[in-house]
């Protein structure tokens, strides 16, 4: 199952260019042009008392039989992304676009080798801690004496 952000990025790219998608594992005999969507790299940070941030980085790979075509695909996606202010509409579990967006924080492209270009995409997800894990002080006692109200 794909994270909803990766699915949203897939739909965005699929609307922008025509290329065969591959997910997670790249087969030995790929059909070109193609786009490879690997698993994202993740790290977490504290965000607030009630939530944490997950930092995602994904390296989407564009391949074609000619280097210029791989570059053109990658460049087309990058410029459409920038025209959208780096916003990608989120899709739900059925692949239907919602009114919500994710905002990519960092996007760049580079040549990996002949016929292959890579697009680095970064974004954050903010998630509330489990309710049981977050303890809020309702009453404060010091030496068995209730403070306040």
Short description:
The chain has 149 residues and is of the alpha+beta class. The protein has helices at 4-16, 67-83; strands spanning 20-23, 34-37, 41-46, 51-63, 87-91, 97-103, 106-113, 116-128, 140-142, 145-147.
> What is the strand content?
35-45%
| Shape field | elongated
Q: How many DSSP-defined strands?
A: 10
| Helix and strand pattern | HEEEEHEEEEEE
CATH C-level class is Alpha Beta
Helix content: 10-25%
Quote the CATH topology.
Answer: STM4215-like
Write a structural description.
It is a single chain. The chain is of the alpha+beta class and about 150 residues long. It has a single domain, classed as STM4215-like (2-Layer Sandwich), CATH 3.30.2000. The chain has 2 helices and 10 strands. Strands 1, 2, 3, 4, 7 and 8 form a 6-stranded mixed sheet that branches. The longest helix has 17 residues. It is elongated and about 75 Å long. The model has no long low-confidence stretch (mean pLDDT about 90).
Describe the SSE topology.
Elements: H1 4-16, E1 20-23, E2 34-37, E3 41-46, E4 51-63, H2 67-83, E5 87-91, E6 97-103, E7 106-113, E8 116-128, E9 140-142, E10 145-147
Parallel strand pairs: 1-2
Antiparallel strand pairs: 2-4, 3-4, 4-8, 5-6, 7-8, 9-10
Q: What key phrases describe this protein's structure?
A:
single chain, 149 residues, alpha+beta, STM4215-like, six-stranded mixed beta sheet, two-stranded antiparallel ribbon, 10 strands, elongated
